């Protein structure tokens, strides 16, 4: 009975996550968007109130997503641009702000006043996090939890916000030395400090002592606030841009370069999964509803299932880079994104029943708003002048049917570039209709979305595209459209690490490299031939006075060479 009960529970969990993948993520629709004055470098949700904080330029705003992202509070007058924030509402009512000059300040959300100002860091503060703690009443500092900060000076500090002196409680030892450095003194070696910049920080939501910190040298540290030395040192092999602790503190998700890795904390940091689904740097991560979300400078948001680590959904924002992301806690029905071109974007969950009800209400409203007088005027305008002009649609005079767009044009019209490329590959147009496939590639390249559509493809799709490129480069009519596709494929998939992970496409890339080398050599020979022809023409023009009438140019050149 015990084994049967365990199987039934696991099946229920799996069935629940399947329902979430089928119903929730595809129905996360576009919501309100706002244009700010500077790039949105950081977005943080509060765990206790449904508001989120946005850092952009020299100001920090607290917005309400239920009121079309209306600004609730505004903090400004910072001496340098804001780099990182940490937001904790309700009982503590605090927001911590880290600036690029190394200053760190703590503000009261209710009173909009600065409570603490700390200057222990000597470089930009890249990460802030409030440690989990008991939330008391009011917005006083006595009920405030501890605050952790990391900066580009390579230091990770722990603060007691209620301390009026503004001195750190502890500095975590993130260096390779065996002894901890002093709290008040920065690292002595400037070169080592430049190589050991701290770039990311996250705190556990349940454990009041657990922290995670990422470094530019590719290391990630699991920290305990009760001791200065790291509890666990992990390796990512790339400069770390973001770290996220799992809700149950059983795993750590690390992002750096184009890679995302899942590391098990219960097994000493053993790698659970590693995948590359972005073709540009991954900038932020978010965890919610049994999925891991990643966004990057390629304008893509990838949703990965935490059970199978397969991609279940993708959101595209072409021609912009995503810098930050936050998922609302609890039900996680709102996703907030910040871009490098100053846009604040949101996505909200809309159930199919509510969407159908809203469409029906809009349809009934539009029918009720129609004016009978306008109907009569419209009917009078289309009425023919004479009865004999009315032609009945007889057997030989049927109305011409409305021309429908094909599937590819409909996808391009809706800016679903990745789905359009998948349609071209799955329908076999690369082999059967290469001209149409080349036209689709040309349209994607014209929109600047070809690289975005090519990212995260399986080996079968990459192999099909490489075969299409190899076939098209030898065709004079299609070579111009195949060159941008070949360039993007080489940039995304031809890296040595990527080829080692995809051994099936390595021979095709070798054939493409040989073909391109041959085309380059033929281009050089063509340029040399054109140069010789031009020289001959110039020589013939100069020797025209000595050339006898009726003597061919080649014979004259042969006689002169003798």
Automatic annotation (TrEMBL):
Its main location: nucleus. Residues 399-535 form the U3 small nucleolar RNA-associated protein 15 C-terminal domain. It is found in: Nucleus, Nucleolus. Keywords: Nucleus, Repeat, rRNA processing, WD repeat. GO terms for biological process: positive regulation of transcription by RNA polymerase I; rRNA processing. One of its GO terms (cellular component) is nucleolus. Coiled coil: none annotated. InterPro entries: U3_snoRNA-assocProt_15_C (IPR018983), WD40/YVTN_repeat-like_dom_sf (IPR015943), WD40_repeat_dom_sf (IPR036322), WD40_rpt (IPR001680). Ribosome biogenesis factor. Involved in nucleolar processing of pre-18S ribosomal RNA. Required for optimal pre-ribosomal RNA transcription by RNA polymerase I. Part of the small subunit (SSU) processome, first precursor of the small eukaryotic ribosomal subunit. During the assembly of the SSU processome in the nucleolus, many ribosome biogenesis factors, an RNA chaperone and ribosomal proteins associate with the nascent pre-rRNA and work in concert to generate RNA folding, modifications, rearrangements and cleavage as well as targeted degradation of pre-ribosomal RNA by the RNA exosome. This is U3 small nucleolar RNA-associated protein 15 homolog.
